[in-house]
UniProtKB/TrEMBL annotation:
SUPFAM superfamilies: Thiolase-like. The lineage of its organism: Bacteria, Pseudomonadati, Bacteroidota, Flavobacteriia, Flavobacteriales. Residues 129-201 form the Beta-ketoacyl-[acyl-carrier-protein] synthase III N-terminal domain. It comes from Kaistella daneshvariae. Keywords: Acyltransferase, Transferase. Pfam families: ACP_syn_III, ACP_syn_III_C. This is Ketoacyl-ACP synthase III. Residues 255-353 form the Beta-ketoacyl-[acyl-carrier-protein] synthase III C-terminal domain.
């Protein structure tokens, strides 16, 4: 049975930097629809203390999700040194599709078919799939790619995660300061090498009361248009859910790979809130009865890039792979964990071993 290795990566980080001053004139409301009377300086500073997000990136008005995905994909294809016409599948992870400047979402045609068109791929047997799976979408797309390769349905797959969350946020919601835009991509290939690539994965879907932890909903300002919907999250519920279940899911995946936490060189975890990420990693080590560990095992980008959803992990992977996040790096035989949690609620993790 073949294994799945990453042979190229790419990312696109929008150039528009959005700092805290961007929100100084905002008017914020509570979840109950009441105006928050605290000074914005105080609201924003408290937000930074919890999330550590100082800056985030937004796309330009004339850019779209597929544009970001295209730039990341081109870079990944060039890095892999492959002929794009030989790609068997394009799997595109996104949650809102091709969002216009008015916040209208569009999945017709699909994001993967839009990308295939922009790449100019003529091969009619290059199959396009969209992955709508919350923030864990890119990791789940990589799991799907590995499944297709192990089933010998494909030899070469382009896996993209791209999102434009800045266009689906409520102007009156403090949580809008979390969200950002970006894209990341990898090319994966079938190999006969043993014990390399994706060596273990797991996915959990809790879709009962957890279904409503992260949804689309009308504006917090009740006299706004009630037909227009924005991303809305129950931060407290998500925090509690993530801390309870994500560390266990990661450990289960490491166990499935017949490894110990001491065998893991990096943990690339989805980043929506720095406080939550630190707590999840700490709880993971406590499951192994370890209280003191090297915090460099879990690189962070949220402070400068914000939460770009499906783009977070592939962007971070690409930056480290290309030496752009020193002192972090990847070496041959390194074991790297990818893990994410998000809308659904869904959790996934995989262990990747570099050839």
């Amino acid at each position: 049975m073949p294994n799945t290795i990453i042979i190229g990566s790419g990312s696109y980080i929008p150039t528009k930097i959005i700092g805290k001053d961007f929100f100084m004139d905002s008017v914020f409301y509570t979840d109950e629809g009441e105006k928050i009377e605290k000074p914005n300086e105080e609201i924003i500073q408290k937000f930074i203390e919890i999330t550590e997000i100082e800056n985030r990136r937004y796309l330009e008005d004339d850019e779209f999700n597929s544009d970001l995905g295209y730039r990341a994909a081109v870079e990944a294809i060039e890095d892999a040194k492959i002929d794009k016409e030989e790609i068997d599948y394009i799997i595109y992870a996104s949650n809102f599709g091709e969002v216009n400047t008015d916040g209208m979402t569009n999945f017709l045609p699909s994001m993967s078919s839009r990308l295939k068109n922009k790449l100019g791929i003529k091969n009619r047997k290059t199959i396009n799939y969209d992955m709508i799976f919350g923030c864990p979408g890119w990791v789940e797309a990589l799991i799907m790619a590995d499944t297709l390769i192990k089933a010998e349905k494909a030899k070469l797959i382009l896996v993209v995660g791209s999102e434009t969350l800045s266009r689906v946020t409520d102007a009156f919601d403090r949580n809008k300061m979390i969200f950002a835009d970006g894209a990341g991509a990898v090319v994966v290939k079938a190999t006969d090498q043993e014990n390399v690539g994706v060596i273990a994965d797991s996915t959990i879907c809790d879709n009962h009361e957890e279904l409503l932890y992260l949804v689309n909903a009308p504006s917090l300002k009740t006299d706004e248009d009630r037909k227009k919907l924005y991303i809305r999250m129950n931060g407290r519920k998500i925090y509690e859910y993530a801390l309870k279940y994500v560390p266990v899911a990661i450990k289960d995946t490491i166990d499935k790979a017949n490894l110990d936490i001491t065998d893991i060189d990096k943990i690339l975890i989805h980043q929506a809130n720095a406080k939550m990420d630190y707590a999840m990693i700490s709880r993971l080590f406590k499951l192994y009865k370890i209280s003191d560990y090297d915090h460099d095992i879990a690189p962070m980008t949220i402070q400068q890039f914000g939460n770009s959803s499906v783009a977070t992990i592939p962007t971070m992977f690409d930056l480290i792979a290309k030496g752009k996040m020193q002192p972090h790096n990847f070496k041959s035989k390194d074991n790297v964990v990818f893990a994410s949690v998000g809308a659904g609620m869904n959790i996934n993790a995989l262990v990747y071993r570099f050839p």
